[in-house]
């Protein structure tokens, strides 16, 4: 057990080194990199589809998709005309910096204004792997229940933005939005909190505005890089 | 990377040994042990609450809850009068056999007719850790989307029963039930498929009947043990 922990620590240190190399590359390119993390089925890909529909006319977007299996998600983004590369982890439960570097080697994703990295559907493991991103963003669907931030505190403490998704389902599920807002605010007092629905469009413009604000802040050097 | 794989394999082998010890113990006690796996927020705890409400009058039930943080879930089951022990994994993304053995040491869970092990909310990592259970069962809520079996094939291939939850939300989400049924049948031709809703009660009696059938099969020696 101790040996597992030691080797895992060493692997994480190697990942951090690779992530720092990536971050320098992203900074030089002026690309905002967003690491999008959630449970399976929280609506990450749908949120990206809506983002692409609104922003791809004026901004160069690119996507790296992480999944255990299937090219489905990259296919959905490519169908909207955005360069998207699918990383298949072959059973692994998270993306690592090496896989992101590999994606940049084989796919024409840069230069871009915003590179979205949609991580493997998993609210736990992806949290500890730095991918060289500017920020982690967590998505939580209202169908998942209002106890999730305190049950999965690490990602909610680290995510710059917590995006609540599928708000159109609120009338049909038990989900105390104010309780979730309080949990997130306690875990990350400086984080942003956004309620969205791809079905009704609620909050999607605000989400896009937050992204563009973050891009401008990065380019004007007013925001701390790193995650 | 290679070293990580080697050490992980060794850890898994050690886990399998511990799981075999547990399995012999469960077999001697005549206890059916169910390892319940799903994404966060699929409704595992709610399914267990409904199961307890229906079966605890006639059967001795016990629960081990696995979570990264909070005692919430064990508390919900204990409130129904069922012995429930919370394992806090402290960031780890799955339960292992050592933690189950530890839970049996400190909590009075056996003898029991059925021991439910509600794994950490994660559709990937728990799949590879044998806990000495008789069967793995996967839950998938209709709000998670109908592409999940092919995207997370390992657990759907191994689970004896795939329980679709929150069917009351079907009118409000895009979820092709027949497509999911076909995906699951392809991944595990001998598996059972069940549609349930804790809100309306749909399928819950059938779920309980399946569990009792499995308990009888184990006790009469007509079912292959192991998972």
Low-confidence segments of chain A, given as residue ranges, are none
Compute the gyration radius of chain A: what is it?
17 Å
Assembly state (oligomeric)? homodimer
Order of helices and strands of chain A: HEHEHEHEEHHEHEH
The separation of the N and C termini of chain A measures: 29 Å
Query: What's the CATH class label of chain A?
Result: Alpha Beta
What sort of overall outline of chain A do the alpha carbons produce when their principal axes are compared?
globular
Characterise the protein shown here.
The structure is a homodimer of 227-residue chains. By secondary structure, chain A is α/β, with parallel strands linked by helices. Chain A has one domain: 3-Layer(aba) Sandwich (Rossmann fold). The first copy, chain A, is 42% helix and 17% strand. Chain A has eight helices and seven strands, in the order H-E-H-E-H-E-H-E-E-H-H-E-H-E-H. A seven-stranded parallel sheet of chain A has the order 3-2-4-1-5-6-7, sandwiched between helices. In chain A, helix 1 crosses helix 4 and helix 2 packs across helix 8. The mean pLDDT of chain A is 95. At the A-B interface, helix 1 and helix 5 of A face helix 1 and helix 5 of B.
Which descriptors would you attach to this protein?
8 helices, alpha/beta, Rossmann fold, homodimer, 17% strand, 227 residues, 7 strands, 7-stranded parallel β-sheet
Write the layout of secondary structure elements.
Two copies of one chain form a homodimer.
Chain A: H1 2-29, E1 32-37, H2 44-55, E2 61-67, H3 72-78, E3 84-88, H4 97-106, E4 114-118, E5 135-141, H5 148-151, H6 153-158, E6 161-165, H7 177-187, E7 192-195, H8 204-220
Parallel strand pairs in A: 1-4, 1-5, 2-3, 2-4, 5-6, 6-7
Helix pairs in contact in A: 1-4, 2-8
């Amino acid at each position: 057990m101790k040996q597992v922990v030691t080797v895992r620590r060493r692997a994480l240190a190697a990942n951090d080194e690779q992530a720092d190399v990536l971050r320098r590359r992203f900074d030089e390119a002026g690309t905002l990199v967003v690491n999008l993390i959630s449970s399976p089925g929280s609506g990450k890909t749908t949120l990206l589809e809506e983002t692409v529909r609104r922003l791809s006319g004026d901004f160069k977007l690119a996507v790296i998709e992480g999944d255990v299996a299937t090219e489905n998600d990259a296919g959905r983004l490519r169908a909207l005309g955005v360069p998207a590369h699918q990383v298949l982890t072959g059973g692994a439960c998270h993306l690592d910096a090496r896989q992101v570097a590999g994606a940049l080697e084989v796919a024409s994703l840069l230069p871009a204004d915003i590179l979205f990295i949609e991580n493997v559907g998993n609210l736990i493991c992806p949290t500890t792997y730095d991918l060289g991103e500017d920020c982690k963003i967590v998505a939580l669907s209202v169908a998942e229940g209002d106890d999730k931030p305190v049950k999965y505190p690490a990602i909610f403490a680290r995510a710059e933005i917590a995006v609540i998704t599928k708000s159109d389902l609120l009338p049909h599920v038990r989900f105390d939005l104010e309780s979730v807002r309080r949990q997130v605010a306690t875990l990350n007092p400086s984080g942003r909190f956004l309620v969205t629905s791809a079905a009704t469009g609620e909050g999607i413009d605000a989400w896009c505005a937050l992204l563009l604000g973050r891009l401008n802040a990065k380019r004007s050097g007013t925001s701390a890089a790193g995650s």
